[in-house]
Amino acid sequence: MPELRKSPIMERWVIISTERGKRPLDFKREKKPMVGGFCPFCTGKEDKTPPEVLAYRDPLSTPNSPGWKVRVVPNKFPALQIEGDLDKRGDGIYDLMRGVGAHEVLIESPDHTKNLHHLPQEHIESIFWALRDRCIDLKKDSRFRYILIFKNWGEEAGASLEHSHMQVIATPIIPKRAIEELEGSKFHYKLKERCIFCDILKQEQKEGSRIIYSNEYFIAIAPYASRFPFETWILPLQHISAFEKTPTEWFPALADIMKTVLTRLDITLDEPPFNFIIHSAPCKTPDLDYYHWHIEIMPKLTKVAGFEWGSGFYINPTPPEYAAEVLRDVDIGGADDKNTTKEKVEDKEWPQKKSK
Amino acid sequence: MPELRKSPIMERWVIISTERGKRPLDFKREKKPMVGGFCPFCTGKEDKTPPEVLAYRDPLSTPNSPGWKVRVVPNKFPALQIEGDLDKRGDGIYDLMRGVGAHEVLIESPDHTKNLHHLPQEHIESIFWALRDRCIDLKKDSRFRYILIFKNWGEEAGASLEHSHMQVIATPIIPKRAIEELEGSKFHYKLKERCIFCDILKQEQKEGSRIIYSNEYFIAIAPYASRFPFETWILPLQHISAFEKTPTEWFPALADIMKTVLTRLDITLDEPPFNFIIHSAPCKTPDLDYYHWHIEIMPKLTKVAGFEWGSGFYINPTPPEYAAEVLRDVDIGGADDKNTTKEKVEDKEWPQKKSK
User: Fold this and answer.
1) Does B34 map to a domain?
2) Cα separation of A159 and A162, whole Å?
3) Which of B2, B15, B98 lies at the smallest CB-CB distance from A3?
4) Is residue B45 a contact partner of residue B79, using CB atoms and an 8 Å limit?
5) A94 inside domain
6) I need a surface site. Which of A276, A331, B59, B101 has the fewest CB within 10 A?
């Protein structure tokens, strides 16, 4: 019998469809090899992007030339444009404003062939430092209400360029999805005087069945109401509402958990296309007792279709307890383990068979 | 400069990104030929589906055998299951219930190769009659709160079978997306004592720039805050809240507008994959003054990526005024016109160049 599960944070229901149950090998697809060729993000092609707004580079190198490790540039085809004011206005019953905002690209490394988690842990850490620097800088602009950091990897996940990168968009209004989370968690706080995310962590730590990995400062879980197969959330273990206020000493652990989780997804699902997003407190807010920043990783294995568009519900054919068990047990010792891991994965029982 | 447009019905913002502007030929993709082979929806294979719940068939034929024109069967792999009660319960901070509901498939015709709009108008009309019959029947079940009708066509739009079909899902809770529309339009009604959809129709009829087609009882528009390129909404011109209460004499016009609009999308975008959904008043409600049933057609031309997942905003690279102009002017005289139409399409100026 399928289960209808509600997100504890907002009014979002998910159908966990065990009858359509899907294990990792059911998501097998034709893997597209890297095309290569001309790439504006590769080292030596710095003049093919707008001038950098931030780069961690060799002190002897000059801006917009080789010698960088992480580089942030404005998007050449921005969804929102940096100049001008909002000019909010009406048009009969309609409301509009000018599409003012920032749209930046963070190029994760000079190497075209490396995805985020292929990089050494300290390199990943420096990427998060660069993201933090950009958040702090963009939050100074009084026109912006929210900063969204996200990554698309793989064509099916909407990446238009192969070279691994993230994007940072600053918007003049708080996005719908962020408002839903903020309002949902504020409602919980009003009732209980507790952060809903801290409550989730406590229940998950007690139950254990949806934990994928944890270290000193972060935890990775398969959310109770996962929308997608192998959806994974990473949260700081201690309460903190804004990503850019994460203490310095947590950054190595953040890099470690991202590298571990993405590597395990890669091994389990054979390098799946994926999106991840960072949800954090909006600009112009003090530290929030009711909100907790986190990362949502969504492997792109199923297609969003009419039912999802029409209902806002999701049908997830892989129970999160099963996904967590598979991802928890992946041996990331080396690439040679791939086949062994897959056999192990195929042996895993569906969680509902075990319970009751 | 991109524009941020708000849906007049709910808190949904869309970035109309003229800088990334895309015309029909920009959406060219590799078209996958029909695979054919075994199909459980084809005539003669009636025993490969669960027994039919409804069929319009030759009076001399017997159920679950050839001789049908339109056939409705339970989904063999249902997202929700018809038996049992909801058993709503909690699990610590989490809420869940059993996945009870109906999940049916409407097979549009015995012909494997025909999409909905390839069928004669009176055949399309009978499909809408069958949908109406199923709605009326499912609404009798007191466990159900909402009936969602939708269609996925093409692999990229999530269709798992080639043979053209629609789906009907009855859910035990009103879906999030429906609640948002219902609450948004109720809010407008409280302020103005007018239906927001009727207001939209009036403004669109006055302006004309987003009208694609209309007939005696229905109108097709490119919505002001279209999420997707060439998104098209079909609405009854007169106020009516529930699809299944549509008067008999409107059905030929409904079939006509669906055939016309889908044919024009096919010609303009070279048979794009698409989803459509029908949004209607929930079960157990009287006629609603504030809500207006409608069809949302979404060609699947762009990929939903991290920004959309993280924000709930959409980036639409094709202004709806342009899409409407292109679709309005399509000559559906015959297949031979395809190339001529495309040239005409390429000549169209972006709407913003004309205004101001």
Assistant:
1) no
2) 7
3) B98
4) no
5) yes
6) B59
B304 in contact with chain A, both atoms CB, cutoff 8 A: yes
Counted domains in chain B: 1
Q: Which two tokens stand for residue A1?
A: 């019998």
Do B152 and A305 lie within an 8 Å CB cutoff? yes
B:124-153 residues touching chain A, CB 8 A cutoff: 146, 148, 150-152
Instruction: Answer whether residue A39 is part of any domain.
Output: no
pLDDT for A292: 98
Q: What phi and psi, each to the nearest 5 degrees, are found at residue B199?
A: -60, -40
Residue A294 falls in the annotated catalytic set: no
What residues form DSSP beta bridges with B167? B105, B150
A342 touches chain B (CB under 8 A): no
* DSSP 8-class letter at B190: H
- Among residues B31, B6, B2, the alpha carbon closest in space to that of B318 is found at B2
Question: What gap in Å lies between CA A241 and CA A246, rounded to an integer?
Answer: 9
A148 touches A275 (CB < 8 A): no
pLDDT in tens, B55-79: 999 999 999 999 999 999 999 989 9
pTM: 0.93
Query: How much is the ipTM here?
Result: 0.90
Residue B90 sits at the chain A interface (C-beta within 8 Å): no
Residue range(s) defining the domain that contains residue B177: 3-29+39-85+94-354
Res B340: pLDDT: 43
Cβ-Cβ contacts under 8 Å, B298 against chain A: 309
pLDDT tens figures, A185-204: 999 999 999 999 999 999 99
Q: Are A202 and A222 in contact (CB under 8 A)?
A: no
Q: Do A77 and B19 touch (CB under 8 A)?
A: yes
CA distance B307 to A193: 31
- Closest CB to B307: pick one of A169, A207, A307: A169
The alpha carbon of residue A137 and the mean position of all alpha carbons in its chain are separated, in whole angstroms, by 21
B contacts of A172 (beta carbons < 8 Å): 4
- HSE-CB of B62 using CA atoms within 13 angstroms: 1
Low-confidence ranges of chain B (pLDDT < 70): 333-356
Q: Who's near B334: CB < 8 A, 6+ residues apart? A: none
Average pLDDT score over chain A: 91
Asked if residue B2 lies in contact with residue A99, where contact means CB atoms within 8 angstroms, the answer is yes
CATH number of the domain to which A273 belongs: 3.30.428.10
Nearest to A95 among B6, B17, B311 (CB): B6
The dihedral region occupied by A259, where left means phi > 0, alpha psi between -120 and 50, and beta the remainder, is alpha
DSSP, residue by residue, B122-134: HHHHHHHHHHHHH
Tokens describing residue B330: 């399509």
A&B contacts, CB < 8 Å: 227
Q: Which among A342, A294, A327, A331 has a CA at the least distance from the CA of A212?
A: A327
Report if residue A123 sits inside a domain. Answer: yes
CB within 8 Å: A13 and B310:
no
Looking at residue B356, its pLDDT comes to: 32
Residue-level pLDDT at A33: 75
Region A217-239 average pLDDT: 98
* Whole-angstrom distance, CA of residue A326 vs CA of residue A344: 8
Cβ-nearest to A310 among B80, B155, B277: B277
